[in-house]
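PT: before anyone asks, these are the final sequences, not the draft ones from last week. 687 residues across everything. Please model them as a single complex and drop the result in this thread when it's through.
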Amino acid sequence: MKFAYKLALVILSLLSLALSLGGTWTIERNFSHVQDQIIRQSSRQQLRQRYTLETSFSQADDNSSETLFSLATLYAEQERGLLAASAPSFSLFGENGTVLYSNMPHLISYSDQQQAIAAGETKVRFISAGEGHYLLLATPLRGLEQAVWLVNAYDVTPQFAERDRQIRQHLVLQCAALILTGVAAILISRLLTRSLQKLSTASRALSNGETGIRVDISSGDELEQLGKTFNGMADAIETQMRMLQQETDRQKRFVTAFTHELKTPMTAILGYANLLRSGEQPALKRQKAADYIYHESRRLESLCQELLLLLGLEKGGICLQPVSIAAVCQDIRRSLPESFLHLEMQCEENMAVQADRALLVTLIRNLVLNGAAAEPKDQMVTVRCARQTDGIRLTVEDHGKGIPQSELDKITEPFYRVDKSRARENGGSGLGLSICSMIAQIHQSKLEFDSRPGEGTRVSIMLKEAQL
Amino acid sequence: MYPVLIVEDEKAIADLIEMTLEGFGYRCVKAFDGEQAADLIDKDRFDLILLDVMLPGIDGFSLMEYIMPTGTPVIFLTAKSSVEDRVRGLRAGAYDYIIKPFAPDELLARVDGLMRHTGRRNRTIRVWDAEINPDVRTVTKNGSTVSLTPREFDLLMVFVLNQGIVLYRDVLFERVWRLDSEANTRTLDIHISRLRKKLGWEHQIRSVPKIGYILEAEP
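LR: through. Structure below.
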């Protein structure tokens, strides 16, 4: 059942209950007031009748049943002459319930009258007989030889009819009110739950993967708040989905690149080995094949080493210590091949950074080798280090061919190469900058690239200063 | 007869392909990137293009669109082995697909098969006085059919694909019998003597002591 209908139903039930209770109470109060009036009036009338009858009977010679009957008949005729149709019906009962006189309507039974007598003088009884309603009053006649009870019946049918009419009228009124209110309640609840409907549609869309969905609720109440919360949640989901997607894409690219990186040397090694083992090849061919097998194996080996280094770095657990920049510079110089082009180091004396010495050397060395691979016009790569307010900045700069702006955000991805064929010929595995970037991350820093094609590249990293 | 164009950015592999195909008499031209390949395709005609999918610059699939109008058959060489990649390559109009790492023999068989299917080479291979049809696996000599068992035919094909090269016994055995443990190198010697007898190649298939056998190159 829809919430809007539930709400409407609750409103209707409450209204119906209130109207019914209110109506019943009002009608009953009115009616009981009318009853009191009738009772008072009837009692007065009965009292008058009683006196008249008592006077009449006491003046009689004897109180035999016959005498009483004739006197009562006489009295009834007088009354009828005086009051015409509105004269009250009455009965007289002698001892042991014998009827002395009665002009009661047939509808009022003997037992009803007897019950009225048994109830006594103070009680009043309303009875319904056939279509009509009557008020029965009983009172004993005093000053007679035998106990005689006077029972009066007053016709109260019009009063009861009036009450029934009021109830009917109230019911009609209540129905009309309920119908009107019902329609209004449904409309209002629908209006109120429209926001919920929107939220429900949006939630369903979200769970179906439409992460771009948002709701627009401006009702200025809790629902608007809920809408805002929902939008916040959708934002968060969208962001996380995008990040997850990016991560998956990155991994997919890594696997594809890695497969390619692995399969190329494998193909060459397998192919040449197969050639060599199948039969006696001419010396020149044999020499070439062996050469390729050797170099491709070397390539696989260095790929393996770098991959292991990268995986090791990802695992973490590296301890940073104060390292002197001068020592790092020495290590770098020593690790570079003899034939290396000119490396200039502009570093202040007595500077130290918080770092892992071997990793920092690997980082700077890789950057220097990259700089050299960019074929600088002046045959020079410069390493600079400068003290700044928040640490020490190490910069590696070359005046080579530079990196296009569009490639800058991809160059730290594993196996990504700007110039694909050339870099491989130079023996690069394509992991160099990934390793550098990971090392920077371990030092709670990151590589910052500033490059212009044709002019050169500057890569820098900010490190925490340390005291030796 | 036009040459085969090898488009492969890895020099090691380009050389390997060239070495393999040259032994069987195919002339080869090499291109190391997409642009170079496109230039060559513009300028010259080729019987076949062996195309690496991952190329610097223009990749293999893009180059495919460029090659299509020339009607030159293409075999893709790739490290990508997923079904969708293969389907993509074949949809793009490639004739065949070879996944790295590949055995040179497999490459040669595919290339040779393609050449004969597309009518760029004779349907039959002529070796000495025998005509071999690899598609229906029949051999005829002087107009009459020589009946060979499947193993004998496989053995003959290994010799034909490596004509003029001394083949090691173990490798010969391995290529024909794969990993059939029932057989041994004695089986190989028996098959070779049967082959010699059936084809009348007592001198053409020569035994090289301590090494193996050779199918002599034609003078």
